Amino acid sequence: MKITSRVGSLSEIETPLLVIPWCQESGVEEEVAEPLPENLGDLDAALGGTLGRALTAGDFRAKKRQSLLLYRMGTQGPQRVLLIGVGPRAALVAERLREAGGQAAGRAREVGVAELCVAAPDAAGGDGSLTLEAAVRALVEGLVLGAWRFDEFRSSPESPDSPALEKVEILMADRAGQGVVSAAVQVGEVLGRAQNFARELAVRPGNVATPAYLAEQAQALSKDLDLEVTVLTPHAMREEGMGALLAVAAGSDEEPRFIVMEYKGGGKEAPLVLVGKGVTFDSGGLSLKPPAGMESMKYDMSGAAAVIGAMKAIAELGPKVNVVGLVPSVENLPSAHSMRPGDIIRAHSGTTIEVLNTDAEGRLILADALSYAARYEPKAMVDAATLTGAAVIALGHHAIVLMGTEPDLLEQLQEAGERSGERVWQLPLWEEYREQLKSDIADIKNTGGRPAGTITAGMFLREFVGSIPWAHLDIAGTAWANEAGPYQPKGPTGVGVRLFTEWVIGRAS
Ligand code: BES
Ligand code: MN
Ligand code: ZN
Known about the structure:
33% of the residues lie in helices and 20% in strands. It has helices at residues 41-46, 50-56, 94-111, 132-146, 178-203, 211-224, 234-240, 243-249, 302-317, 362-372, 389-395, 407-420, 453-462, 497-507, and strands at residues 2-7, 18-24, 67-71, 80-88, 115-119, 167-172, 228-232, 257-264, 272-276, 278-282, 322-332, 344-346, 352-354, 380-385, 400-404, 424-426, 444-445, 470-474, 480-481, 491-492. Strand 15 (400-404), helix 12 and strand 16 form a beta-alpha-beta unit. The structure holds ligand BES, manganese (II) ion and zinc ion (ZN).
């Protein structure tokens, strides 16, 4: 897909599909018809007055996600015009434009067009915090995310008649803001593609996307981008003393990998560290999961996908900051070599862990990654993991669980979440919860029972962080969509890519 921006008139542009994101001016009084903006008189004429009539009749009120497709009368100008409602102007946020972009891509596919133009959104509205830059960026993200399809494992494409979206133009009325718009287009495109890349890593099943496969994918990125990628094999992990990671890996014939991705845009400064859980399939191990739904555990490497995707986006955008991405990757299977419930293992940090449940494996591999990170003396460290089913119970599918030790860092992530549309909500890491992890025989046990399962997992991770400012993102509820949304088909979401990248860019000098 090629996305560009240009100046042009809505009524004269030659395109098979012109998309107009439309703000509701009438506010909350839903019975009031939307006015026809003065500058759309020519377009209304080209459409034979149907635009004006649709508005007067109240058929289109620009409600959130409402849409209307109109056709031209003559033989010039846009063949089709798609109005997409983004809701009341006073409540306009970037997410509405991301949704509009996704809807536009979906409608283009239905109609069967491979190119479209979108009128640059009018960002004025909301609480004033939505800039033109943010609005265009979100729109483009939505277009790229909404156009994503995955046919890799089909012998022939699912819908051969609907063409891929090949060309998108963002149309501006005049030259004012052209620089802002074209920069925003580029950022939105980079983020959308990186997120699609993460989705593709997560959608591939456990027999394809193995730890070695993830390592190859990370290494492949270093060929074209300013990224240094180092991969630790089991031998190196043993020398490092990564006993927790190796214990999880022991049950599988797939060798574990520990992937290190380094982006150096910040000279001699201490880096930020991103850590992602890379369990390529989580059967539970000897504490075997029930069969129903077990297939979904191919996405237990979504934290890893978020880190790898974010490192790709960061390297493409080139911010002035150093970033290290760490991905511990294993497969969790039962076998004669598996760790057993009751086993006591020694983590990279030296801490001994009593394994009460082999299905609490994510925290074990993250423990080794978090303590490994100390060598970088990072300014801050954030991990993302599909860590607990309890996170799905707590916040469902619309928020990432956030926990951490430093208020500043938590606030940065909160804001990055709002800006990126990947929103987070905080849970506490109070000392009282630590009791639940006391072992009778070792330094700590790997489960804290049913109460506050997400928090006790966070408390467990905290043991391995040392003095580094750290935050943990539990993405168990947000990494996979059971229902389609405007820019999200059923399946992997690639969540975390936008949030991580937004946070990193915000920390750049
Ligand atoms: N990968 C799972 C968590 C998960 C569950 C992610 C559902 C997405 C959807 C994790 O490894 C796990 O099995 N956690 C256990 C921990 C328990 C044994 C303490 C859980 O949540 O049940
Ligand atoms: Mn598990
Ligand atoms: Zn898991």
